[in-house]
Amino acid sequence: MALIVQKYGGTSVGSAERIKAVARRIAATADQGHRVVAVVSAMGDTTDELIALARQITDEPSERELDLLLSTGEIVSCTLMAMALRALGRDAIALTGFQAGIRTNATFSKALITRVEPERILRELERGRIVIVAGFQGITEDLDITTLGRGGSDTTAVAVAIGIQADRCEIYTDVDGIFTADPRVVPEARKLRSISYEEMLELAKLGARVMHPRAVELAGVYHMPVVVRSSFNENPGTIIQDEDAMENRKKVRGIAHDTDVARITIVDVPDRPGIAAALFQPLGDAAINVDVIVQNVSHHGVTDLSFTVSRNDLRKALRTIEPIARELGATEVTYDADLAKVSIVGAGIQTTPGYAGRMFKTLADQNINIISITTSEIRITCLIKESEVERAVRALHAAFALEDENAPDLAPRTVGQV
Description:
Elements: E1 3-8, H1 16-31, E2 35-40, H2 46-57, H3 63-87, E3 92-95, E4 102-104, E5 113-116, H4 119-126, E6 130-134, E7 137-139, E8 145-147, H5 152-163, E9 168-173, E10 194-196, H6 197-205, H7 213-222, E11 226-230, E12 238-241, E13 254-270, H8 275-285, E14 291-295, E15 302-309, H9 314-328, E16 332-345, H10 355-365, E17 372-376, E18 379-385, H11 389-399
Parallel strand pairs: 1-2, 1-9, 2-6, 3-6, 9-11, 10-12
Antiparallel strand pairs: 4-5, 7-8, 11-12, 13-15, 13-16, 14-15, 16-18, 17-18
Helix pairs in contact: 1-3, 2-3, 5-7, 6-7, 8-9, 10-11
């Protein structure tokens, strides 16, 4: 008998009928003798609808009150799920993040889980109950409700699995698993049977929205096996684990893309020690994640400094950075919100010749201009125009032969116009 945490996303619980279908799946797992904790997201587009409602009241709602408002979506889902299970004759109980012991810091809208106090969940499991937990939310030491940011229910599920020492965490979504690219963009994309935590983390950070990066990182730190699979069929999913021995022929495991990108450029900032710290420390204090930092070569004691943020953070980032830039003597602050990132991801691509060259030539053959490049040990990322990103993804997927797990990914290939 295993202790299993299952997470169901908003699409999976998007209607009463889908909630009933998920309840039947949860009940079937329990009927196999397993103890089950299910974490649920808000129904369908509930979170977006609540945000839109708040902005009908004010353009800049208080983050504390907005978190309290948004937390209601998951509470609706978890209570309805418990009702559906009880209607099937199963003993189930719904718990809010607070009741489930999800403790967070006080960074509203992007709270970090500080600890999980699992006693209530474990007591309910000992009573033979199926436990339904509201995802995406937690509570501070001052008893304020917080939310964990987009995709936060994934993080809730992994954190709960770690806290109760579950055997595995299952993430149920609207796709069959982790693919070599977004199948909506690349119909030939292939489902992976397994992938390492490190590779999945890079894919998630770079735009693969099947699982949230924080959840992947947490699973990797605590070595929690995670299975990603569809809630609409019984197909086997993709397992995320310490080592990926199932498909080790290719170094490139996937192509990721992200259109949630805005670039801020600080023009003619003085080039002297301490400037970068003066600019980026306040962004960190404001919980704004910065990526793809590029500093141009200094001329006459000044330089241009560019970095990317998510589009949702653009307005907040500009409010934070503009007064600092003026104080430092920069000429101006500009931004571009029509960009995207495209990346190749795979362990070892940076230590093996040929991968960067193949990527850059493929984009050049498609007449796609590279605005900037960043790398790590397991990924190469190019910043390009958003209008060109889908064409870039399809071309790169073909160039590295990702549709065929047996084909070498650096074999000579001719990629036509995509």
